[in-house]
Design goal:
This protein has 15 helices and 2 strands. The protein is mostly helical. The protein has 2 domains: about 80 residues, no CATH class; about 100 residues, no CATH class. The structure holds zinc ion (ZN).
Length: about 220
């Protein structure tokens, strides 16, 4: 009789019976078992992109097994869960920005990090793109509430508008060009305005708006 041993490929523990190995669970085997779940898939994809970013010339094809064995596994899964909850505007752009700015992994899901991204991202957007994106958001709100989209800045609760601004779904282009939006901001509480101020570089936008009267005119005719 051979005393065949059954070894866990993840932690190398040995078992005398195959059934005991089958029911054995260790941390890395657990990771393997949930590899198809959305958070694991997203985490793996972000990790692959990150590894490509930090070592673009590596020839070796990285696998899910490399990820499971990586010391950064848990950080990336946490970040994936954060993304699932946050639903950022243009997720891929946000992730690329984190890499490009060399933001430390431990800071990826700090609220201030996303706020800074929203602030910087809105500065690079054309007025056309900003209007297109903001109108999509406002029309979604209109469909959910059955209120005409033109009444968004009059009817939407300030806290809902605040959240959409903080998420980057309503561009400063619109906030500073539309009279209705300005009136709505005036109705907000100081705490809400302070929250918005973390996602918008106010001084930068005031200067920008002054330099672009045609865009402001165009936006204000669309949004009154
Ligand atoms: Zn094991």
């Amino acid at each position: 009789m051979s005393d065949t041993e059954y070894q866990c490929r993840w932690c190398s523990r040995s078992f005398t019976r195959e059934r005991t190995l089958a029911s054995h669970v260790c941390e890395k085997k657990r990771r393997w078992m949930i590899a198809d779940e959305p958070s694991s898939r997203i985490a793996f994809q972000v990790w692959l992109d990150f590894m490509r970013h930090v070592s673009p010339h590596a020839k070796k094809q990285r696998t899910i097994e490399d990820f499971i064995r990586s010391p950064d596994y848990l950080s990336f899964v946490k970040f994936a869960n954060y993304l699932i909850e946050l639903k950022p505007v243009e997720s891929e752009k946000f992730i690329k920005w984190l890499f490009k700015m060399n933001v430390r992994i431990s800071d990826w899901q700090k609220p201030g990090t996303y706020a800074l991204y929203v602030q910087e991202n809105s500065k690079r957007e054309t007025a056309e793109r900003a209007v297109e994106r903001t109108l999509l958001t406002i029309k979604e709100w209109s469909e959910e509430t059955n209120i005409p989209w033109q009444e968004f800045f009059d009817q939407a609760p300030p806290v809902a508008v605040m959240n959409l601004i903080v998420m980057g779904r309503i561009s400063p282009w619109i906030l500073y060009s539309s009279t209705k939006a300005q009136n709505m901001l005036e109705k907000m509480e100081p705490g809400q305005l302070a929250t918005i101020a973390r996602s918008i570089d106010t001084q930068w936008w005031i200067k920008k708006i002054k330099r672009h009267p045609e865009e402001v005119q165009w936006i204000s005719t669309i949004l009154q």
